[in-house]
Amino acid sequence: MKTILVIEDTPAMRENISEILQLAPYQVVQAANGREGIEQARQIHPDLILCDIKMPELDGFGVLHILRKDPTLAGIPFIFLTAKVEAADFRAGMNLGADDYLTKPFDDLTLLNAVELRLKKDAAVPPHPAEVSIPLGHLTKALLEGNDIRQFLCDYYPTTHYNRKHRLFTAGSRPTVVYFIQQGKGKLFQADAAGNEYITGLVGPGDFVGYRALLEEEPYTETAELLEEAQVCSIPKADLKTLLDHQSAVANQFFRMLAGDVAELQERLLKLAYQSVRKRVAEALLMVERKFYPQSEGRTTGDTVRSESLRFGHPDANTSSVMTLSRENWSHLVGASTETVIRILGDLRKEGLIEINASQITLLDIDKLTHLKR
């Protein structure tokens, strides 16, 4: 019989959860706070832990942090119980290694399904090292060890050269692969019924694209389109699913990436709702710079940084190092009409914050632009 540790400071909630689990049947051990939960975990080594976030003495984040530092307890599946999931809390929990969240109030079936799913995944036997294919081994390293190794993924997976404006996938289609951008840049966008587009994200070298729909096993909610010529490799769904099912570290890495994407998108949507267009234009300029020109980090006030091309025609062969971004794309990134965005860019030029020279925008005062977007 599987043993489940329930850490919850509200007596009625703790008893209710325990009764449901005991009927399943599971063996249940209760703890009234975080400190008691740590002690119980060390004594009984449960098969699964359900833990509230907001508790006196030691909260759920503290409990998870301590458990993940203990080699004998680090592998125990961990599910947070919370009355409200803020993006920051979700991201913090996933960064610490949480396996799942249950938002209160939840019904009996939701609780039992989450517990059963987590126990099944934990019981899955990892593939023997000798049985892991070379591509899977490199994919595992790429996911866990960073961008330096990721660049070698395209040596082991099918790689295609795509032209500008090629769509890797469209909203409504179902995922069969996860894309990895080796070279080039692209955008993710959504469109409403009237055809109005809003850029939800920018992607570039080292980025995985389309994994959210695969993780959720749902159709794409966005369209991915390239902004310039690109080298893209395709990782089969089966390979990724194998790692997600058998490598908890890989699964946690993707959950962290997903949590970061969700938090960033929520922050942008909040700004879209409440910030002025002027502030959103400044944010868009800085967003492009951060994403596509990271070498400009560490600059000092007054440094001139080429951040992005504002090109109204076709790219010039003599300026291939400058990325093409149409007026429409600037509009879709800011979430305002093209005319309004161009007018505000003109205002920023008059104020000495940027320079527009034919096909490119130069950021002249990073500090003032950063202050402007706040």
From TrEMBL:
<keyword id="KW-0902">Two-component regulatory system</keyword>
<feature type="domain" description="Response regulatory">
    <location>
        <begin position="3"/>
        <end position="119"/>
    </location>
</feature>
<dbReference type="InterPro" id="IPR036388">
    <property type="entry name" value="WH-like_DNA-bd_sf"/>
</dbReference>
<dbReference type="InterPro" id="IPR001789">
    <property type="entry name" value="Sig_transdc_resp-reg_receiver"/>
</dbReference>
<dbReference type="Pfam" id="PF00072">
    <property type="entry name" value="Response_reg"/>
</dbReference>
<dbReference type="InterPro" id="IPR018490">
    <property type="entry name" value="cNMP-bd_dom_sf"/>
</dbReference>
<keyword id="KW-0805">Transcription regulation</keyword>
<dbReference type="InterPro" id="IPR012318">
    <property type="entry name" value="HTH_CRP"/>
</dbReference>
<dbReference type="InterPro" id="IPR000595">
    <property type="entry name" value="cNMP-bd_dom"/>
</dbReference>
<feature type="domain" description="HTH crp-type">
    <location>
        <begin position="275"/>
        <end position="367"/>
    </location>
</feature>
<keyword id="KW-0597">Phosphoprotein</keyword>
<dbReference type="InterPro" id="IPR011006">
    <property type="entry name" value="CheY-like_superfamily"/>
</dbReference>
<dbReference type="Pfam" id="PF13545">
    <property type="entry name" value="HTH_Crp_2"/>
</dbReference>
<dbReference type="InterPro" id="IPR036390">
    <property type="entry name" value="WH_DNA-bd_sf"/>
</dbReference>
<dbReference type="InterPro" id="IPR039420">
    <property type="entry name" value="WalR-like"/>
</dbReference>
<keyword id="KW-0238">DNA-binding</keyword>
<keyword id="KW-0804">Transcription</keyword>
<feature type="domain" description="Cyclic nucleotide-binding">
    <location>
        <begin position="153"/>
        <end position="244"/>
    </location>
</feature>
<dbReference type="Pfam" id="PF00027">
    <property type="entry name" value="cNMP_binding"/>
</dbReference>
<protein>
    <submittedName>
        <fullName>Response regulator</fullName>
    </submittedName>
</protein>
<dbReference type="InterPro" id="IPR014710">
    <property type="entry name" value="RmlC-like_jellyroll"/>
</dbReference>
<feature type="modified residue" description="4-aspartylphosphate">
    <location>
        <position position="52"/>
    </location>
</feature>
